[in-house]
């Protein structure tokens, strides 16, 4: 870890002032990802601005009937928050599927959105990586790419976003509130994370001089017909090979509305509007679900070691939609997949 | 975002390694060793440590910063390099070597301690960020010569083989019991999954935690 200056911010405006005064600085909150990356010399900020004491630790109801989640709410507190458990259980479930309780006790809600890929080449500074060092090349294409992306890839990067929480936030169509030197703005969740394109070093559309302050959930929570199904190499404490978050609204056996997002397959939580439209007005059956899965995966591309993910994702989508339709969401402690 | 430093990255890394290697063979302190040197001033002895801590509280000065930590009930005024992890401060500065360094990457749980009553991995915790916090380590669990129920339960159930992960397992289990979310064996296993035991004593660890839960 390189030597760095350390400072604390006492309010949002001061935090924004500090980061604008030090372009090579980074904010630190939970530190579970940033400190790890600093130890590996992947991140080398010359100043850390500690925002962990800012007053952004509340979960509040919005006037529209949704929830506003402060950026510093701990992942564990959010997962067990009564209003999240009751109204947005897919978010609670996704949070509990991620990391370990120790890390969830540390990690902030805002930091979860900003965590970086776990692609092994991004972590290994001895290898080329366009995300870590733009223009140096991608070692995962043609390398060991079992954990890498099958959707939305570019010829410069096939990394995946590792978050579980964000897959649920994609389904809930959250809004991300940020504050910068020119004031506040709101970013729709679908526009928050980026595809790698030709600039894979940019994970999100948050500017370097902006602070993520809160995450807003609209009122619709899909609290009856939902699931978060995560498939991984071991039963707990591992990143997803493929995960699926689902929210359905049913009229008897007919799907009135449907949203689903995939994790572990792309540079951002992956939704497909056509596939969701194909579910609406149709019977909630495995045939319908398989057709939606095919629509998502017709543009999927494997890179050798990760090609199995295409079939795995197809089956996970069908199973996830089926779990949600039956109102039997995946348990995050009993891992038998019903 | 990090483009400014990109060009220097490799050079700096190499320099870092070379400097460490040179130091190792010349007997000079390495950068890493220098980084871990820090003044430890128990509050009871410190004269103006409070005032010093106040003036340096929110800004690093000359590469070090004053931090107050209460560890197992004892307050310590420390002057730390901001790079110091809580794990290294406990082990290297306070000689509390019960907390173990396993992976040092937040993946094994051996370094689990309680910060303000909640379990965290101390290897990914920067000590300067915990100024004013209350820390409990494995050394702080026994009271008046009586083992904590979890310590006794781990002995009763032979819940270890080599024992290296045990302090982290026990601190993690203490956090788990305080959280009150685990009722069944499956829930204990899930919520203890951040603590790896390479000897594979898991079934006995679950039994030990169940025994301690019954007593709390």
Task: Tell me what the structure shows.
The complex is a heterodimer of chains A (338) and B (216). Chain A is an alpha+beta fold and 338 residues long. Chain A has a domain of 101 residues: Enolase-like, domain 1, CATH 3.30.390.50. In chain A, 29% of the residues lie in helices and 19% in strands. Chain A has 13 helices and 11 strands. A 5-stranded antiparallel beta sheet of chain A has the order 4-5-8-6-7. Chain A has a 3-stranded parallel beta sheet with strand order 1-3-2, with helices on one face. In chain A, helix 5 runs antiparallel to helix 9. The mean pLDDT of chain A is 98. Chain B is an alpha+beta fold. Chain B has 2 domains: 104 residues, Roll (Ubiquitin-like (UB roll)); 67 residues, Orthogonal Bundle (DNA polymerase, domain 1), CATH 1.10.150. Helix content of chain B is 40%, strand content 13%. Chain B is built from 9 helices and 6 strands; from the N terminus they run αααβαββαβββαααα. Chain B has a 6-stranded mixed beta sheet with strand order 1-3-2-6-4-5, sandwiched between helices. In chain B, strand 2 and strand 3 form a beta hairpin. In chain B, helix 6 crosses helix 9. The N terminus of chain B is likely disordered. At the A-B interface, strand 1, helix 2 and helix 6 of A face helix 1, helix 2, strand 5, helix 7 and helix 8 of B.
């Amino acid at each position: 870890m390189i030597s760095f200056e350390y400072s604390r911010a006492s309010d949002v405006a001061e935090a924004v002032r500090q980061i604008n005064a030090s372009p090579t600085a980074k904010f630190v909150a939970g530190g579970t990802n940033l400190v790890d990356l600093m130890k590996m010399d992947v991140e080398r900020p010359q100043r850390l601005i500690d925002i962990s004491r800012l007053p952004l630790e509340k979960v509040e109801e919005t006037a529209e009937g949704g929830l506003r989640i402060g950026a510093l709410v701990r992942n564990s507190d959010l997962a067990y928050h009564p209003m999240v458990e009751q109204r947005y259980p897919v978010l609670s479930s996704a949070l509990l599927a991620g990391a370990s309780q120790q890390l969830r006790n540390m990690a902030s809600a805002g930091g979860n959105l900003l965590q970086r890929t776990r692609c092994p080449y991004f972590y290994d500074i001895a290898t080329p990586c366009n995300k870590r060092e733009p223009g140096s090349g991608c070692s995962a294409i043609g390398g060991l790419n079992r954990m890498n992306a099958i959707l939305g890839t570019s010829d410069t990067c096939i990394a995946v976003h590792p978050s579980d929480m964000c897959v649920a936030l994609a389904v809930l169509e959250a809004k991300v509130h940020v504050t910068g030197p020119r004031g506040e703005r709101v970013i729709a969740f679908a526009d928050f994370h980026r595809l790698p394109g030709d600039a894979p070093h940019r994970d999100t559309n948050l500017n370097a001089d902006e602070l993520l302050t809160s995450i807003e959930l609209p009122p619709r929570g899909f609290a009856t017909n939902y699931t978060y199904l995560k498939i991984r190499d071991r039963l707990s404490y591992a990143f997803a090979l493929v995960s699926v978050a689902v929210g359905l609204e049913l009229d008897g056996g007919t799907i009135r509305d449907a949203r689903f997002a995939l994790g572990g397959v792309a540079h951002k939580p992956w939704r497909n509007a056509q596939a969701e439209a194909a579910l609406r007005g149709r019977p909630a059956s495995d045939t319908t679900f398989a057709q939606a899965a095919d629509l998502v995966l017709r543009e999927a591309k494997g890179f050798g070691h990760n090609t199995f993910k295409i079939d795995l994702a197809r089956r996970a989508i069908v199973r996830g939609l089926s779990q949600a339709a039956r109102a039997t969401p995946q348990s995050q402690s009993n891992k038998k997949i019903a | 975002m990090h483009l400014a430093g990109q060009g220097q990255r490799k050079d700096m890394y190499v320099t870092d390694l070379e400097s460490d290697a040179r130091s190792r063979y010349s007997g000079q302190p390495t950068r890493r060793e220098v980084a871990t040197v820090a003044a430890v001033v128990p509050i009871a002895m410190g004269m103006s440590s409070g005032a010093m801590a106040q003036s340096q509280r929110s800004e690093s000065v000359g590469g070090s910063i004053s931090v107050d930590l209460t560890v197992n009930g004892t307050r310590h005024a420390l002057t730390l390099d901001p790079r110091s992890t809580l794990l290294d401060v406990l082990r290297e500065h306070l000689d509390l070597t019960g907390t173990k360094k396993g992976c040092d990457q937040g993946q094994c749980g051996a370094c689990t301690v309680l910060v303000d009553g909640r379990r965290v991995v101390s290897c990914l915790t920067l000590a300067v960020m915990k100024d004013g916090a209350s820390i409990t380590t494995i050394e702080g669990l026994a009271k008046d010569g009586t083992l904590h129920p979890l310590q006794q339960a781990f002995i009763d159930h032979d819940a270890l083989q080599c024992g290296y992960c045990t302090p982290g397992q026990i601190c993690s289990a203490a956090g788990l019991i305080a959280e009150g979310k685990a009722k069944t064996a499956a829930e204990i296993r899930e919520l203890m999954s951040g603590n790896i035991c390479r000897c594979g004593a898991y079934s006995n660890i679950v039994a030990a935690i169940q025994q301690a839960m019954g007593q709390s």
